[in-house]
Amino acid sequence: MQHFVIIGNGVAGIEAAHTIRERHLPKHARITVISKETEYFFSRTALMYAYMNQMERRDLEPYERKSYEKQSIDLVLDTVTDLDANEKTLTLEQGGALTYDKLLIATGAKPRHFDFKGFDKVKEGFVNFVSMQDLDECERLTPSTKQAVVVGGGLIGIELVECLNFHGVETTFLVREDSYWPVALAKEEGDIVAEHIRHHGVDLRLAEELDEILVDDNGRIRAITTNKGKEIPCQMLGMCIGVVASVDWLKGATTPPEIGRSLSVDRAFKTSLPDVYGAGDCVQIETGEERPIVETIWYSAKRHGRLAALSMMGDHVHYEPPLFYNSSKFFEIEYTTVGDVIRVPETARAMWRELPGKQITQRIVYLPEEGDRVIGFNMLGSRWNHRLLERWIRERRSIAFVKEHLGSAQFDVEFGRAPLEKMKETEVAP
Amino acid sequence: MREQGKLGWFKHDITHRGITAWLLFAILLLFYFILYFPDKIGEGAQVFGASKETVNWARELGGSLNIFEDFMRWLGAALGFTVKKWWDPVWNKWTLYGTLYTGGIVGGGIYMIRKYSHNRYQIIRMIAIMVTQTIFAFSLPIMLGATGHKDYYFSYFWPLKIEYLYPENLANMPLFMVLYGVFGGLLLVPILGAFFGKRWYCAWICGCGGLANTFGEPWRQLSNKSQAAWTFEKYSIHTMLVIALATTGIAAASFALGDKSPGLQQTATIVKYLYGVFGVALLSGAVGVAFYPIGGTRVWCRFFCPMAALLGLVQKFGRYRITVKRNMCISCGMCSKYCEMGIDVRAYAQRNQSFVRASCVGCGLCAEVCPRGVLRLENKADPDPQELTMNKLLTQGYKEEPQRKAV
């Protein structure tokens, strides 16, 4: 019997466990999942709904608790402190040693942090919004918070802003860039989202950065100052400036694997150590090119977990990232993106469509030089079947074709189809 | 975490089975007992063949408890109307109940339209529910009664309104009502169900579903999502369907045989009485509504309604399904949380599994609350429903080795 050990019970880890169990009966494969965060897998993406009173803690768990028992997946709530790949042994903080036949490291990512001025004096009021413990801390601090500042204009930032706003906290949202989320949204789209954020009463400040954190006598944050010299009173400071791989613990291990910024794996999710694999937000996939593949979204972690498990079971795996797609929601504005929409070739053009008076837009990027072939979609305010959009990109369809058939990719609710025929259309540089 | 302040406490408490929720439950239960049961006491004594004195005593007891009826008669007289001696077609307790019920649906409907103003499916659905209730389930029956006609609820069909196919009732109805009831209940309901799913009735027309989806909205998330609840539902709802069919059958047989079989007549009277007490008054009324604050909004619809059972069977082989967008689910669970029928929608969505479940009433809230727009209600010509069993969902595919059975 083989023993599969998985460190991390996030989506990559649990997906791997399920993939292994699909093939091997309990008498052929023992599966152990170790986590220090929670005993049961929960959906990190739903933390905000628990914070906003729309869900309870238990509702965040995607699988019924007894299903782990039914599937013979052992869950261990502990911290791994050491890895010895020669002896195939893990050392646990509380549970002693654990030997494995195949090991998957899926420890995910943790919030990025800078040593801001005044941070060393902070005892209370500083939060992230990534883990269950972060949620507990946010909830503990909210009743004593009238004003808050959230730093970082990404998806986690806006989630935290939405939660604080729900609880009636006056929130200032500091975004370093001069339009909202420029890594995914064009200026026009960023402006629409920015207006929507402000419409909810959030003080969104673009092109403004945190300079110094000020605390009161008890070490509780009382205000921050920005690089524009403004002082903003706040009792909570949310730091959402991205995440970094959670692999520090490996650096001091008996047999440390090769680590770049994240845990290095090849296209079969193998680390430099024998029988040790990596998947999810904690890995960078080395391809031989200068830049490794780094993917840190829910969908990629789920994909990694499944493929890494196949690789662990001896299948041939050669990872090739699929066409990029993602979705999100900025307060009420829904967002779908497929393909390349930002940092596209200079020759690219974009068809920009907007519905007058509504926050519904589409930006379709195409290459006039290559027969008008479409390479990306950025859709705000209505729902789209991303599978069809993907197919059109793969089939190298022209902008004329896509425009003609766009209606067939709509995924809005019945009776609620966005009226594409009423949209104003202009051609812009992407 | 709940909102701050006293209002935040109350909002949380009443929607999360707190003390105020239990209080509301008790009030609603009491209301339904006073509404339904005074009549049933005397009737019961008679049906079970008690002595004359006992029947009279039971009637008096019932009469003394019938305070809503007394109130309405008093109100009618106080407003200067002539109230008929034994039974007034307008000034009776059912008008009071209808007013409250319609008020709940219209008030809740307006709340829903405001809450989901961006979702046209919900808006149109709410308008359908409110119009159906105010006209066909409230004003029209009262007007029919007031003008000396037989009152009739055109928005209800057999087997939900089981007495509409009792032969002795059909014999006393105008022909068009007979045709409406028979063709509506036996043909229209299942045919539309095959094309659009049970939602055309359960989430657009029906008063039970109407109240659940308007007034009951704050409690929809309380539905039980466990596997045990699903198992119970499968047995209970189909048992109720069998009981409803049997009751109608006994009523028809007794009518057909008439005086030739007095024993069957007596049985039919008792069976119909028991169905009226337990099926209609207790389960659809008292349990159906009073359980909102503690068991979610669709307890009657999910576990007991014979019409839902019938439509569910049709739905499984019909066109309706929920389409899941592949690889877009983030397992957040909002869909499951807000499913009033206790379907674990997330279990399907995270497996990229389009599905149809017999119990799904097509309220569309799972698609509404999904932050990634993964779900869509559809009527497709080429359905490919693969209803998974809960066991498969839980065990995610691994199967025990086939066991050799002794031949």
Could you describe the 3D structure shown?
The complex is a heterodimer of chains A (430) and B (407). In chain A, 45% of the residues are buried. By secondary structure, chain A is α/β, with parallel strands linked by helices. Chain A has helices spanning 11-23, 47-51, 66-70, 132-141, 155-166, 187-199, 248-251, 298-312, 386-394, 399-405; strands at residues 2-7, 29-35, 73-77, 80-84, 89-92, 96-99, 102-105, 109-111, 126-127, 147-151, 170-175, 203-206, 210-215, 221-226, 231-233, 236-239, 243-245, 263-265, 276-278, 283-285, 325-330, 333-339, 349-354, 361-367, 373-380, 424-428. In chain A, the strands form seven sheets. A six-stranded antiparallel β-sheet of chain A has the order 21-22-25-24-23-26. Chain A has a five-stranded parallel β-sheet with strand order 3-2-1-7-19. Helices cover 22% and strands 29% of the residues of chain A. In chain A, α1 packs parallel to α8. With 407 residues, chain B is mostly helical. In chain B, strands 1-2 form a two-stranded antiparallel sheet. In chain B, α11 (227-257) crosses α15. Chain B starts with a helix and ends in a 12-residue tail after the last helix. The model of chain B is unreliable at 387-391 and 394-407 (pLDDT under 50). Chains A and B meet through α1, α2, α3, α8 and β21 of A and α6, α16 and β2 of B.
